[in-house]
Design brief:
Helix 7 crosses helix 8, helix 7 runs antiparallel to helix 10 and helix 9 packs across helix 10. 36% of the residues lie in helices and 20% in strands. Strands 1, 2, 3, 4, 5, 6, 14, 15, 16, 17, 18 and 19 form a twelve-stranded mixed sheet that branches. The protein has a three-stranded antiparallel sheet with strand order 7-12-13, with helices on one face. The protein is an alpha/beta fold and 545 residues long.
């Protein structure tokens, strides 16, 4: 059996101009980044602005195993299946982060015959967006420290510097560090944090900005520190916005690539869903909706994380109205959530179906077929869905590509045409911070109570004082459980959610309650994937899966 990278290397890629034409993008609207990838100029928005939107399909999942459930693979395979059914389709997914690639999960470009290509480029440096975001973020951190070093005109309290530094590599040793050591010429010593680049507020801003003007306005609102009399210092105060925007000017433009079957794919932005909002850029999605009949996108991790944030943050910001949800399940994830018993694991699926119902969107279950799944196990899932009157389809898109998703694609089309979504948001922005957090926790997680540390209570008071309490909520939580404890599997009805602190993403436009043991800088596993990655004398890369 060929590995993913062997399958990718054997594929014949189409010229990026052909992919652009297929998507409805003019030659003068793309900027080449090699033969098989390109940036799309934002000028396209003027030409297509009055076109009718296509159908928006969101792919999400139940609580996964540490290796993932193939959600991205299903997303890619579904786009290919819809194209095979003669539907003009564009795929919208996130850019991979080097953290997971070098850590536990490996590459993030799909698998088998449902991949986006060129997979090595996409998985590694692609078009440089991650580096641009990292640079813009760290420029702001540097300007802040430089301001303090040169006299500190704003009287910033170094104990209340809230802007971390970022790196697109998992490195637990950088979670808490001290910078500025060495003497007067080397800066002012203070504690510092590092986050992974996908957790950067700059990443969230890039993915939610509507255009360059909006990007700059959002950058200016970023809070980096507080003065001794508790006044916030923003990026605009440090005159950082112009330079940051220059570093991000190319990164703001969506990346165009292709699936292994030649379906146009926008791969743009990469926020994690457990610590950020977890979906590709709003700009890419809105362009795709104007150009195609069907747009297939994904939200990271389960319905209680990526999907909830997609609906309550992204759809609210971009005025999007999803037409259907595809909920991915796998036998191994159900067994994990049932502590080895697939029947018990169905309780987890039950909760995720319930979560989608809160938003009034029709849903179909996609059973991602793995080679060692038995017919009895598949039948059990299908019969469960049938009893719930939920459509379900087995998708074998890893080995068959789009052809293996034809049943899923056909049932999805029927679902969309026979069910008008009654999309609604989960909470009103005018509710208090605690009310919004508790609505999410109780409805999405099944929580019985939410408790707040003293630090979190202080954050809420400050948030209200600064007028940020009407922002939406982006809860940072483990992806492995419906609760904030990764060890609680299945349904977590009655669980207690603990909010440790609340971070203010004033530029992105949301609040980030930190729950449980979640951290914005992941660590590497005992045996990281990077140990298997190599390149030979001829430049052939191996180990990216």
């Amino acid at each position: 059996m060929k590995s993913d990278i062997e399958i990718a290397k054997s594929a014949k890629l189409e010229d990026i101009y052909c992919i652009a034409k297929k998507a409805g993008i003019n030659e003068d609207e793309i900027i080449l980044w090699g033969a098989f990838k390109a940036k799309v100029s934002l000028d396209i928005l003027k030409r297509i602005n009055n076109k009718k939107n296509g159908k928006l399909i969101l792919v999400t999942t139940i609580n996964p195993t540490p290796e993932g459930e193939g959600k991205t693979t299903i997303t890619i395979g579904l786009a290919q299946a819809l194209a095979k059914l003669n539907k003009k389709t564009i795929l919208c997914i996130r850019e991979p982060s080097l953290g997971p690639i070098m850590g536990l999960k490996g590459g993030a470009t799909g698998g088998g015959y449902s991949q986006v290509l060129p997979m090595e480029d996409i998985n590694l440096h692609f078009t440089g967006d991650m580096h641009a975001i990292t640079s813009a973020h760290n420029l702001l951190a540097s300007l802040l420290d430089n301001h303090i070093h040169h006299g500190d005109a704003f009287h910033i309290d170094p104990r209340y510097i809230v802007w971390p530094r970022v790196l697109d590599i998992s490195d637990r040793a950088l979670r808490k560090v001290v910078v500025g050591l060495g003497g007067p010429k080397d800066g002012v010593p203070h504690e510092e944090e590092f986050a992974i680049t996908p957790a950067s507020e700059i990443m969230a801003i890039l993915c939610l900005a509507k255009d360059l003007k909006d990007l700059k306005e959002r950058l200016g609102r970023i809070i980096v520190a507080y003065t001794y009399d508790n006044k916030p210092i923003r990026a605009s105060d440090l005159k950082a916005v112009g330079a940051m925007a220059v570093l991000l000017k190319d990164a703001l433009q969506p990346n165009l690539a292709q699936t292994i079957e030649g379906v146009p794919a926008f791969i743009h932005g990469g926020p994690f869903a457990n610590i950020a909002h977890g979906t590709n850029s709003l700009i890419a999605t809105k362009i795709a909706l104007k150009l195609s009949d069907y747009v297939v996108t994904e939200a990271g991790f389960g319905s209680e994380l990526g999907a909830e944030k997609f609906f309550n943050i992204v759809c609210r910001t971009g005025d999007l109205k999803p037409d259907a949800v595809v909920l991915v399940v796998s036998v191994k994830a159900l067994k994990r959530n049932g502590y080895g018993d697939i029947k018990k694991g169905l309780k987890n699926l039950e909760k995720h179906l319930e979560n989608i119902s809160f938003f009034g969107i029709p849903v179909i279950v996609s059973i991602n077929h793995f080679i060692d799944d038995t017919d009895e196990e598949i039948d059990l899932i299908e019969n469960y869905c049938k009893a719930k009157n939920i459509p379900a389809a087995v998708a074998d898109i890893w080995s068959q590509g789009g052809e293996g998703g034809i049943e899923l694609g056909g049932k999805l089309i029927d679902l969309i045409h026979n069910n008008k979504p009654k999309f609604c948001l989960l909470y009103d922005l005018n509710k208090t911070v605690k009310e919004k957090i508790e609505i999410i926790a109780k409805k999405m997680y099944g929580a019985g109570a939410v408790v707040y540390t003293v630090a979190a209570e202080q954050d809420i008071k400050l948030c209200e004082k600064l007028g940020l309490d009407k922002l939406p909520i982006c809860i940072a939580k483990t992806q492995y459980s419906l609760s904030d404890d990764a060890e609680i599997l299945g349904r977590a009805d009655g669980c207690k959610i603990t909010v440790r602190e609340i971070k203010f993403s004033a530029g992105a436009g949301f609040l980030v309650p930190m729950t449980g043991k979640i951290t914005t800088m992941p660590g590497l596993p005992k045996k990281p994937t990077s140990e298997s990655i190599d390149i030979d004398d001829k430049g052939n890369i191996s180990g990216l899966y």
